[in-house]
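Chapter summary example.
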Amino acid sequence: MTHLGGAETTLFWFCAPLAVFGALGLLFARKAVHAAMGMALTMIILGIFYIAQQAEFLGVIQIFVYSGAVMMLFLFVIMLVGVDSSDSLVETIRGQRVAGLLLSLALMAMLLAQVANAKFPTAVGLQQVNADPGNVSGIANLIFGPYVWPFEVTSALLITAAIGAMILAHRERLSAKPSQADWSRERIKSGEHVAGLPVPGVYARNNAVDTPALLPDGSISELSISRVLRARKQVADSQREFEHSQELEGESGDMTSQEVGDRQ
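The structure predicted for these 264 residues follows.
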């Protein structure tokens, strides 16, 4: 039986705990971002294992497809749908937690039984497969040959899981979605912001979300500051910025156009 080399053994014992740590993070993380990062860590390490076992194509596809596309899809879908950890506390189907726990235990027992009864032949490596017919062709022959039926069943299962996730995450509106005209009527009735909120960058040096709008007297409009910048505490003192802009304008009046351009 072929034994692992020193470098391969070191790689396994270094990366295997990280893969387990990422898998546990996927299961027990409270935030979707942390769960996605844990899944990405596990998928990347699995790709490293494939590459170490001379399956370069499979390892690269594992990293690019699962760690890139699938993880980003998983994260963006949760962010767009707006499902958070509090939704999992609501049991919509009676007995679903008990049934899920029993099915998980049964699946774990079945997997352990299969692994315990598995017999591994002598390792021969992939030098011959990579040489003829090649790593990519060898994988294609296996997927669309002996394993075409399990491959199609897995594809159908993934599609069913995606559709089920969208159905479970769907939320019905209790009222009709307000249109732009409805928002305008509400502003007119309340008498606040009848002309609308000031857009960031209006009458400022740059038209960007991080550039607040300026009032007729040159001061900064607090209403035009982005909520994201407020949450990140990246908003400077408006009075200080106004005084600084006045100083720059006063200095620019005493400088030539070339000096003003260099100062900016």
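To summarize the output: The CA atoms of residues 122 and 226 lie 63 Å apart.
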